[in-house]
Amino acid sequence: MRRDQLHLVASGAGTPTINHTVTALRFLFIVTLRKPQVVIRLPFIREPRKLPIVLSPGEVARLLDAAPSLKYKAALSVAYARAARACPRESGGPVRHAVTISPRPVAGLVEGGAARGWLFPGRDPVQPLTTRQLNRACHAAAMMAEIDKPVSLHTLRHSFATHLLEQKTDIRVHPSAARSRDILPANT
């Protein structure tokens, strides 16, 4: 069994494939054959944790400037300034949070009349902007801004938290409690 594991590693199998094999072997020997002593020392492989991708404040500014429209610029600004998760269910439920952000993007939306129903309406103005639409806008803005890192809404979340840490802000408090207008790039 050890040689089989080494063969998997040598052939370029990833950590999940190797661990699936270990699980199958453990099931075979423990449950089916009732010989647990054979696999008692058969280890799982721990996958190394990867550091998140973080944009610099300048890259965030370029991304926001390259947003496809004022609506998306404001929505991406809110996503960044709140260190928001894309879906409320990811954070444990529909919790409302107060957000302090630079008023310029949102003020432009309100003055432009886009906030008749939803502040960020979707393709159908009766429905809100979807996570998928916002993610697509985020990817398009990253391409237009020529950012060569993989960028997503989650990248904005990590970037905001990193920028707070760089400013020596205590992030044990919810990130929106910080004065995000001081963290947002100046030209947003």
Describe the structure.
This protein is mainly α. The protein has 2 domains: 2-38; 57-182, Intergrase catalytic core (hpI Integrase, Chain A, Orthogonal Bundle). The protein is built from 7 helices and no strands. It has helices at residues 2-10, 15-32, 57-65, 70-81, 103-111, 131-144, 153-166. Helix 4 packs antiparallel against helix 5. The radius of gyration is 23 Å and the shape is elongated. The protein starts with a helix and ends in a 22-residue tail after the last helix.
Structure described in brief:
The protein is mostly helical and 188 residues long. The protein has 7 helices and no strands. It folds into 2 domains: 37 residues; 126 residues, Orthogonal Bundle (hpI Integrase, Chain A).
Please give the share of residues in helix: 40-55%
Number of helices: 7
Q: What do we call the CATH topology of the largest domain?
A: hpI Integrase, Chain A
Please tell me the total number of domains. 2
Low-confidence stretches: 177-183
The biggest beta sheet reads:
none
The CATH first-level class of the largest domain comes to Mainly Alpha
Q: Which term fits the overall shape?
A: elongated
**CATH homologous group name of the largest domain:** Intergrase catalytic core
Layout of secondary structure:
Blueprint: H1 2-10, H2 15-32, H3 57-65, H4 70-81, H5 103-111, H6 131-144, H7 153-166
Key descriptive features of the protein:
45% helix; hpI Integrase, Chain A; elongated; 2 domains
